[in-house]
DNA sequence: TCCCAGGTCCTAC
DNA sequence: GTAGGACCTGGG
């Protein structure tokens, strides 16, 4: 087994907490800051510039370094990306200096898409709970190196499409999915049947990929609107021009970018924060036009900053 | 206790 | 084509 650690140079906390993944936890119990995460069947520990594999669900698990190189997008050139973003944008530059180097991960597309379907109309702790329960119930146990396998596993891989496709409504609801259960089951069935091929979508351009992924397969809707689509494309297919617009980003744009970008007409009467697909696309295009081909990286910094600012003002209040 | 959440779907104009 | 409302459930 080759579990040799991999060096990483990005900011661990900023990268794992900026909303792209739901399976990393901070652990400070032994005095230093370290992070434990699960992805693609690997249990990982990250601290002070390195990531180790603690265990794997795979039969042949000598591929950790290969996996990590891809998962942590180690071939992304951060300085090139950050210097390509607008230099006179004070809001963005404040965030970059506050959060350091955020890395957009290249997650497993299946795991990532379903995670963001789980995110619909839920808060982040609840999303983490859904994914944990789905994994514990339907995923494979991952035993750590040197762990007595008679002991109960604490870590589980994200479940495969074939398992979720056969799960009952009752089983899925028991994981806290609520009305999302039917989306999860439907997508699983389509992937299992080969009618939704995320690998093939990966070959497409950003806008073609959106067209393939959003909403309709065989005329049926399944819980993938423009926001979930953008998250899947950015956080797993590494389409870096994707610019997910959630309620936080919408608030940020309204507060800090309307005048700068002359996009006031895109904000008239936006009740309940809801955006039609047409308006969502128009807003996303405006941001791509402004931030450039690495708009997704800009989105992560905007998201990190507005979330932290909101948390701090709530604490003060 | 009660409100609301990393949205999407459906229905009525 | 789009504004309004419903939607499961569990954190805060």
Task: Outline the structure in words.
This protein has 317 residues and is α+β, with helices and mostly antiparallel strands. 48% of the residues lie in helices and 9% in strands. The protein has helices spanning 12-17, 64-71, 78-84, 90-99, 109-118, 124-138, 161-166, 169-173, 181-192, 198-202, 206-213, 226-235, 247-256, 258-261, 277-291, 295-316, and strands at residues 6-7, 24-27, 34-39, 42-47, 50-56, 141-142, 155-156. It has a five-stranded antiparallel β-sheet with strand order 1-5-4-3-2.
List the secondary-structure elements in sequence, H or E: EHEEEEHHHHHEEHHHHHHHHHH
**Structural class, from secondary structure content?**
alpha+beta
User: Which sequence of strands runs across the widest sheet?
Assistant: 1-5-4-3-2
Mean pLDDT, to the nearest integer, reads 93
Are there runs of 5+ residues with pLDDT below 50, and where? none
Task: Describe, in short, the structure shown.
By secondary structure, this protein is of the alpha+beta class. Helix content is 48%, strand content 9%.
Secondary-structure map:
Blueprint lengths: L5 E2 L4 H6 L6 E4 L6 E6 L2 E6 L2 E7 L7 H8 L6 H7 L5 H10 L9 H10 L5 H15 L2 E2 L12 E2 L4 H6 L2 H5 L7 H12 L5 H5 L3 H8 L12 H10 L11 H10 L1 H4 L15 H15 L3 H22 L1
Antiparallel strand pairs: 1-5, 2-3, 3-4, 4-5, 6-7
Helix pairs in contact: 4-16, 5-12, 11-12, 13-16
The structure holds a DNA duplex (13 and 12 nucleotides).
């Amino acid at each position: 087994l080759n579990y040799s650690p991999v060096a990483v140079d990005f900011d661990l906390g900023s990268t794992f907490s900026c909303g792209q993944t739901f399976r990393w936890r901070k652990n400070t119990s032994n005095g230093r800051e370290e992070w434990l995460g699960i992805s693609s069947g690997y249990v990982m520990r990250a601290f002070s510039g390195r990531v180790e594999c603690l265990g794997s669900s795979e039969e042949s698990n000598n591929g950790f370094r290969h996996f990590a190189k891809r998962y942590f997008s180690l071939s992304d050139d951060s300085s090139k990306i950050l210097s390509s973003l607008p230099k006179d944008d004070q809001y963005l530059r404040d965030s970059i200096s506050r959060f350091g180097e955020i890395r957009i991960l290249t997650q497993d597309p299946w795991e990532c898409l379903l995670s963001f379907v789980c995110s619909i109309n839920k808060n982040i702790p609840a999303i983490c709970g859904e994914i944990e329960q789905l994994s514990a119930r339907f995923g494979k146990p991952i035993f750590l190196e040197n762990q007595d396998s008679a002991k109960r596993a604490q870590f589980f891989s994200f479940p495969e499409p074939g398992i979720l496709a056969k799960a009952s409504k009752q089983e899925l609801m028991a994981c806290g999915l609520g009305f999302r259960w039917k989306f999860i089951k439907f997508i699983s069935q389509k992937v299992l049947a080969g009618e939704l091929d995320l690998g093939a979508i990966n070959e497409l351009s950003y806008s073609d990929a959106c067209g393939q992924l959003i909403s309709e397969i065989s005329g049926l809707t399944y819980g993938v609107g423009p926001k979930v689509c953008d998250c899947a494309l950015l956080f797993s297919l590494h389409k870096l021009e994707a610019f997910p617009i959630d309620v936080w980003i919408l608030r940020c744009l309204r507060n800090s970018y309307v005048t700068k970008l002359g996009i006031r007409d895109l904000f008239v009467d936006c009740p309940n924060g809801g955006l039609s697909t047409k308006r969502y696309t128009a807003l996303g295009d405006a941001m791509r036009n402004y931030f450039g081909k690495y708009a997704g990286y800009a989105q992560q910094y905007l998201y990190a900053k507005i979330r932290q600012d909101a948390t701090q003002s709530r604490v003060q209040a």
